[in-house]
Amino acid sequence: MKKYLSSIFIILSVPGFFLTESMAQSTKKPNIIIILVDDLGWGDVGYHGGNIPTPNIDRLAKQGIELNRFYTAAVCSPTRAGLLTGRYPDRFGLRKSVIPPWSDFGVSTDEVFLPELLKAAGYKNRAMLGKWHLGHVALKYHPLNRGFTHFYGHLNGAIDYFTHKREGELDWHNDYNSSYDVGYSTDLIADEAIKNIKSYQAQSPFFLYIAFNAPHGPLQAKAADLKRFGYDASKPVFANGGKEGYEGRGNTKQQTYAAMVNNLDENIGRILATLSNLKLDENTIVLFQSDNGPAPNEAGSSGILRGKKFTQWEGGVRVPAIIRWPNGFKGGWKSEQVTGFIDVLPTILAAAGVKQRPEKPLDGIDVLPVLQQKQSVINRNFFLGDGVLVNGEWKIFEKLEPNAGPKRASDLLYQIDKDSSEKNNVSAKYPDVFQDLKEKLAPFDAIKAPLEVAGFDVGKKGFVAPKEWKVAGFR
């Protein structure tokens, strides 16, 4: 008997023994990495049949779970806000517009952000890297006052990729300080992510929210990336609508955009390779998603889907999304669960074993049971804003949608599980379904926030940006 027990002890004590390593890994809280990209369309990734090479994103899709019915808001600030709060952005006045540089709006400090909840669960390091876009005029809106322990990136959207300026002033920061780092913003954000992973690994678990500004305009790519897509220096660069030119424009928008997306993919690959090399990938949740569909007139593709950014057509709000967590669930399959940006917070908290929830009720749901294949589907209605609701089978447009380009008729119903391109309005064929969904939509459309962000151009005239976008200057 002693000999038998001794043999077991020897086996279990061997360094790296598979059983003990797996058991140890399974008891640890997972590291969490959210990779949010900007204006990447459904048809811009290889695994959706896109023409731009995205081998690293495609590999992630094979390893993880394709979230085939993942929805966002139609523009970026609302998506970011909903992702970090688990609540529809309508509840705090941020659905129809982003937060422009001249706005004093910020997401209410009454809203609890994801990193605040992770802090209480033992996540010591919680970094926000890249594009913030949730408020910049007061320190109370700064990432370091919303639960993050580190911030590296820009407060506004649409910065110059090389100078890192917005409205003529440097918008690149390291915590509260200006950063004068030189380089292409996509590269710099990935560099910082890799640096943070290496630094934080000894104090796992950690949380990284990596919000790339690519491939959002202005369309700018590095010379080496442009050359891979046929750039010819002897030919002119694409016209910029009469505006002052930006560094990094290729011969065409399509060429420049492809170079940007390919560079983005390479940098995502660098981050994933770092996790693998450090043997952190098995117990790291990686969520990849776009914030909305591709911007009109900037070379992005919605693929088979109808519409683009600013609209509630599928191409504006249904985005490429993948989640991978080898220790938590099996990968290599495609989920048809209706899910989206508001579900990120409750699902991440459940995966991390975090019991605490905000006092205000969440709109998002925990979809972990579906990801773990313990439940086939969770039936739910998902509000897409402005009179639009979608569920597993149907999608209703109850009224005219502002900013949708060519006007469309109201009272639209699509059997969306069979008609993802939204070609056939079946409201006349299924009047009872339409009426039922209209009644379910009404409470969402009735949401009113005490304060709403003003229209994009309100306050623009005469605006002068603060020196290096110093937040303290607005106090």
From TrEMBL:
GO MF term list: arylsulfatase activity; metal ion binding; transferase activity
The UniProt record lists the keyword Transferase: yes
SUPFAM superfamilies documented for this protein: Alkaline phosphatase-like
Presence of the UniProt keyword Nucleotide-binding in the record: no
Cross-referenced PROSITE patterns: SULFATASE_1
UniProt keyword terms in alphabetical order: Calcium, Hydrolase, Metal-binding, Transferase
Residues covered by the Sulfatase N-terminal domain: 30-354
The family this protein is said to belong to: Belongs to the sulfatase family.
Protein name: Sulfatase-like hydrolase/transferase
Species the sequence originates in: Pedobacter endophyticus
Upper taxonomic lineage: Bacteria, Pseudomonadati, Bacteroidota, Sphingobacteriia, Sphingobacteriales
